Every structure is written in C-alpha cells, then in structure tokens.
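Ticket reopened. Same input as before:
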Amino acid sequence: MYINWSQFLMQCLALTGWIFLVAAVYAIVEPIIRGRAGDKAEGQNPAGGEGRSGG
Amino acid sequence: MESIGGELAYMAASAGKAFIILMDPTRLMFLAAGCLMGLVLGIVPGIGGLAGTAMLLPFTFNMDPYTAFALLLGLGSTTATGDPIPAILFGVPGGAASAATVLDGYPMAKRGEAGRALSAAYMASLMGGIFGAFLLAISIPILRPVMLFLGSPELLAFAVLGVSMVALLSGNAPLRGIAAGCFGIMIAMIGTDPQSGTLRWTFDSLYLWDGLPLTPLLLGIFALPELCDLLIRRSAISADTSVANIYKGQLQGVRDCFKHWWLIVRCSWIGGGIGSIPGISASVVDWLAYGHALKTEKGASETFGKGDVRGVIASESSNNAKEGGALVPTVAFGVPGSATMAILLGAFLIHGLVPGPDMLTKHLDITYSMVWSVALANILGAGMCYAFSPQFARLATLRFSLILPAVLGIIYIGAFEASRNWGDLYALLFFGLVGWLMKQFKWPRPPLILGVVLGDTIERYMFISVERYGLTWLARPIVAVLFLMAIIGLVRPLLQDIRNHGGVKRMLTAFQAPTFHVSQLFTLFMISVIGVMAITALRWDFSAKIVPLVVGSVALAAAGFSLLNDMCRKPETVTGSLAEQAMQEVERKLTGEQKKIHMDLTSDTEHLPTEIVVKRAARFFGYLIAFMGVMAVIGLVPTVVVFVIFFMRYENNERWTLVIPYTAVLVFLISFVFDNIMAIPWPPTLIAHWFPVLKFLPSI
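Engineering reply: fixed in the latest deploy. New output:
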C-alpha cells in the first residue's frame, strides 16, 4: 500500500481553501436564504427535536 | 467409524486453518474495525446494522473472502452488543433488537444501577454471541452428510421456501410481502438472459446489460430511507441525561450473568434457533426470549418491567445469538434468514462463492472463518463496550445534522463503487425513493432484497433441474416436502383469516363497497410497474420469459388481492406482525399499570402530520438530486464540502466553530481513505474537463 503523503498534504491544503471559500460564500448568502425561508425559526437547535418548522 | 474419525479430523483441520488465517494482523484489524463500526451504528440513532452492512459491502470487493467476512460479520455481530447502551441509559432502544431491554434496563439505570445493567447486557451479549457461533460450528458436522443428498432441485426448493417464508413473516402484510419478493426476483432478471441472450428490461441502456448491481439497490432500499426519516424526525436524545456511574456495579453485572447462566443458555437457544428460521427478524427474538424469561423465571411477574437484571440478560443474550443461527441456512442452503443475511449472501456471490454444499466441503475453511469471526467479534465488541461505555453513550445523543452528512457522503461513494458508472447513482436515487415509500406504506423490504439476491439462483437451478431431470424433479421427496411447506405457508394466512372470522361466509361479510385511500396509490404504482414489466416480457424467447412471467403473475395476483383487501375490507383490528404479537404477549403478562410499550417497527414518523413528512421527504430527495448535479460539475469531495456546510447551517444552524472542523475532518478522511488508500476511480467531472490542472484534487 503506497501513500503519496505530499500529494495528500497538497489535497488537504486545497480542500481547506475550498472549505473556507464555500463557508464565506454561504455566510454572505445565508441572510438572503433565511429571509426567503420566511417563517423558519432562528437559533441553534442543539438537541434536535422539533425546534424548527418543517417548511 | 474410521470415516467418521477422518471426517472429524478434516473438520478440525479446517477449523484450525481458518483460525490461523483469521489471526493475520490485517484481518484482525478489519475485524476490529467492523466491530467498532457495528457498535457505533448500533448506538447512533437512526442508521442500524442493516444499513451499515449495506454501506460496507462495496468496500469489500477487493478483499479476500476471509477478510471481507471478518469485516461484515464484525459489524453484523456487534450492533446488538452496542444498542443496549441507549436502551438502558436513555430508555430509547438503539435498534429493534434491544426494544425489550428498555423494560428492565431503563428502570435499573434510574435506580442508579446503570453500570450493573450495562455490564450484564455486555456479558449476556458476549455469551449469547459465543453460543450462536457454537451453534453454527456444531451445525456443520450435522449438515455435511445431509448436504450430499441435495442437488439443484432441492436447492431451488430451499430458495423458493426461503423467499416465501420471508415474504410471509417479515411484516404483517403477507400479500405485500409476496408481491415484494416476486418484484425482487424480477429485478434480479434485469440484464442479459444467460440461456438465450435476450436483453431483459434493459430499456436500451448499456448500464443494465450486466444486470442491476446489488449495492446501489441495497443502499437505496435500506440506507436512504433511514436517513430520510432521520431528517423528517429531526429528533435526538437529550444530551443532558447523566451518564455518570457507568463503571459502578460492573462486577455485579458480570456476576449476575454467571449466576443466571442457565437463563442465558435458554435465551441464546431461542435466539439462535429462531434466528435460523428465514423471515423472523431481530425485532422478534428479544421479545420471545423476554417472554420466555417472564414465564419461566421465579418471581418474574412481580419484578420484571421494574428493573430486574434477568430481563436485560434474557433479551440481550438472545439477540446476539441470532447472528450465528441465521448464518446456518445462509451458508448451508443459500437461504438467508434475514435482510442482513441477504446482504451477506450478496457478498458470497460477489466473492464467487456459491452457498450450499460447496461451503461445507470445498470452502469449509471459509465457513469456519465465519464461526471464528462471529465468536471473536462478540469478544472484541463486549471488550470495547466495557472500555468505552461513556464515550459510546455520548454517540447516542448525536444530532441528525451531524450524522446525516457523513453517512450520505459514504453512501454515494459506496453506490458508485458498484460498477463505477453514473447509472449506479441513478439506481441509488430511484430505489431510495421506492424504499422510503415502501417503509412509509408498510411494504416489507427484506423480501424484495431476498428476491433480488436469490432471483438468479432460482432461475439457474430451475433450468438445471428441468434440463437434468425433466419434470421428475418435482417428485423428489425433499423437493415435494419443501414446496408443500411453501404452499402451506402461502395459504396459512388465508386459512387463519377464515378461522378468525368463523368461516368463509362470515369472512366475506367483512367486505364492503370499495373505498379509496391515498396510501393505495403506492400499491397501484407497484401493480403498474410489475404489469408493464410482465407485458414487455411477453415478446421474449420462451426460456427467457418463463420465470419472469410466472413470478410476475404471482406478484400481480398478490398485489391485486392486497389492493382489493385494503379497499374492500371493513376496518378491524389486525393481528399484527410476529414481533407485535410477541410484544403484546409480554405486555399482557406484565402486571400493574405499565404503559403501552412503544415499538415502532415500520415507520418512525407516524407521529408527525403528513404535510410535514411530505415536505421534509421532498427536501431530502431534493438534496440528493442537487448533490448529484453539483457532483457532476465539481466532483464528489468538493460537493461534500458544499453539502455539509449548507446542510449543517441551514437545517440546524450549527455553529461555525463546529461546521468548519467537522467538514475538514470528514473530507480529509474521505480523501485519505478513498482516494489515497483505496484509489477509487471517481466519476468524471465537468470542471476537470475545463481545467485539467485541478485533477490532483480528490474526485475531480
């Protein structure tokens, strides 16, 4: 089993960049999406449950 | 005498060889990995061992059979060891197999005896599991001489009996079970017919020429519906429940097991014996064993249900013994006792092994390696539980927004591994929808899978039998007895119905003018699909169409009667499935004002309004379609990033400090395991076509 560690590190770096890019884009569009979703309850829902509406 | 000695020596040598092979560090590592995954899946809400086995199957393609079965049986054997943890600590069973454990385990935990109850559950699971492995081991020398009398006709009869029993016993709707089983057999016949070369139901698609691969179908039928329900339910066990004192009283729990060893032997026997009957699932054995303990143990009617350790021991020893018992018909006759065993049978076929006499002669060492795998997995699983109970307990409180993204990513990779074709992903989506609808409308899913797995075998054995024996094969004694049993099984529900009503005339009076309900749309959909398939088959060569037409007609008749029954029957109390009957029996026996036991076998979302269920399900399948669309453009791993971030933030507003590390760990792991170690060839992407420089990234 051969593992190309340098390639894996490069992949991790590139993916980290991608993660932050996607997170930044989502953070920008989040208010718009939430605004559209309308009645969706805000706030974290740590225990799951029925904290948010289904729609 | 000499031959018996020689036979035993050969078997001992095979068992020894299997043990040495399994002791290889790599295989042991895979066995331990399987155990860990089994425990985790048993504890994490909503996934279960069945979906877990389906998810692991595609990753065993490149392994040798010993390693593959070590991994799969490691997982299958330990899900029942892990699931008492949420049952005892939180009063919510991790899986159907530990539903009865709640009755006594939870009151014990509330009394401050969680450590004792858990310890007794692990030790009982360990002993039960070893008993199951022992049962399999001793069945081999008993069955070997019998196997010499079995030819293709007998194996065909066993397969037919297996499908019919699973169809009848796996739910409370025998007609739908039969229709599902027959539909499964028809699905198995998709592709090129080996006899005449006719292309059967390929719809001009090259992907279907070799038949529909088993993996996307399994993942669609068993894994996606559980995930969809997880999103619909959105519930989790409250995290603030105390998990303290887990280590207190552990020794007492072990002592309890040794003190009640005879109860363990009896309940393990029930688990192993019942497990070997096709169609009786895990959700039944724990209730039967619990009911047995309730009836036979001294003073049980006063103490059971209020925190008696014997209740925990009874149900936990039986559900672990089941695995070994269920392997007996799977290995010996190619008739899987349950859906998990049907998946294992799929693994047999993928590894080029034919269940039946060969497994007890040519491949005896593989069979013995399974015995060792089950035994070792139970020891490892119980050991891990003793060592990491508090950590495992925290897993039970995981939220859906943490479980779903990771599991969905692995399902996509697993489905694509089947034939490395986009068709796998379309099949996954299609069967995911069918599987979820089946679950919602209470169509049993195990017979469908059993039909798919056994379909080819049934057709092949039938042609061999006809070619070799003409029609005389039907008169062979074992064949005649097995077919008779299958027919009795099929007719029995009708006879029972007539008896319950007190005669045919009275039964007919229970019918009324047809009324339509929206749930019948799914039955209509199934009838149309099967009908179209049967009509298409009319044009084929005789040898290509005979089995599909026979099976299709049975499916149509069963589905038609089921629809008629639904529409015209006056509403009345149904007897319920075997598990429900066993549960009711226990319920009746428990004294006092015990609350009704909740054991939802079919759907976990019935408490929600239909509108919410439909909306959330539509959103789930919307996610799946969007996932595939984005994946076609940017590749699977980058899509996982987009999906995880969107899902965790949008669905449950998880905090960024959790979302970013979670996503990073998940995609690094996927890249490492699937790209660097397993070197999976990812589906081609548009972005790689436009910017070839990006190809160094995993999955692009």
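DSSP finds one helix and no strands in chain A. Confidence is low (pLDDT under 50) at residues 39-44, 46-55 of chain A. Please confirm and we'll close it.
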